[in-house]
């Protein structure tokens, strides 16, 4: 049995929740809810989730960036708790600023949950607001190029029409889309790291990620907006702005 001083936090994952590519996955559309955790005493803490859905827990050192879900990651768990829920156990110190991210085993799952924290002292749990990547340009000019570096190499879906139907869902990235041209260079990395790499690269304003060569991030420059993205037939392709 789990013992210690208890504190709890209840929330609900909905279709309006933010989504990301959670650790140990190569697809987006995992809804998540981040919780700020403040502790006043060092020691072993247990985070136990109760829910009717199959939850997945991630514990981070702050800051938490959804575009780089493996950065500052301390521990994850899938089903160590009861009824396919997570149970995270970590030895924490008061010098750490922590973020607990509640997400799911399968993509697009929604439902209520309750997290109970056991430890040497009561943990203070409050909502955490992630800082989204912001667009650096207000340009709304539609690109006239119909051939991209991705489709030229035969690794992406066919170029489509201007992306009025692209589902951004409140994020600065979306699925099944591409930004034509303006390539700086490309690098073979995981899709979850592509947006973060662009944000850390001088003059990079937008990106496209494909499964080419096991995962390729195409870093791009120039004035751009979400309206410049085009739809593609490749369901695994991701595009975004920073």
Automatic annotation (TrEMBL):
InterPro entries found in the cross-reference section: Pan_app
Domain (Apple): residue spans on this chain: 178-220
Domain of life: Eukaryota
Record-linked Gene3D superfamilies: Hepatocyte Growth Factor
Protein name: Apple domain-containing protein
Species of the source: Rotaria socialis
């Amino acid at each position: 049995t789990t013992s210690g001083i208890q504190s709890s936090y209840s929330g609900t994952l909905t279709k309006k929740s933010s989504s990301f590519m959670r650790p140990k996955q190569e697809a987006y559309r995992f809804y998540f809810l981040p919780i700020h955790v403040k502790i006043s005493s060092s020691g072993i803490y247990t985070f136990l989730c109760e829910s009717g859905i199959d939850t997945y827990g991630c514990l981070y050192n702050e800051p938490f960036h959804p575009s780089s879900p493996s950065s500052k990651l301390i521990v994850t768990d899938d089903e160590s708790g009861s009824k396919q829920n997570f149970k995270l156990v970590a030895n924490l110190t008061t010098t750490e600023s922590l973020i607990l991210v509640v997400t799911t085993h399968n993509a697009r799952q929604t439902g209520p949950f309750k997290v109970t924290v056991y430890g040497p002292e009561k943990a203070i749990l409050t909502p955490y607001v992630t800082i989204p990547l912001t667009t650096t340009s207000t340009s709304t000019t539609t690109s006239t190029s119909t051939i991209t570096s991705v489709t030229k190499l035969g690794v992406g879906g066919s170029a489509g029409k201007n992306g009025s139907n692209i589902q951004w869902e409140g994020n600065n990235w979306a699925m099944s889309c591409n930004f034509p041209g303006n390539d700086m260079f490309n690098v073979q990395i995981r899709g979850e790291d592509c947006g973060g790499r662009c944000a850390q690269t001088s003059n990079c304003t937008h990106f496209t990620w494909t499964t080419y060569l096991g995962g390729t991030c195409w870093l791009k420059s120039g004035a751009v907006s979400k309206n410049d993205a085009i739809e593609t037939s490749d369901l695994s392709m991701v595009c975004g702005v920073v």
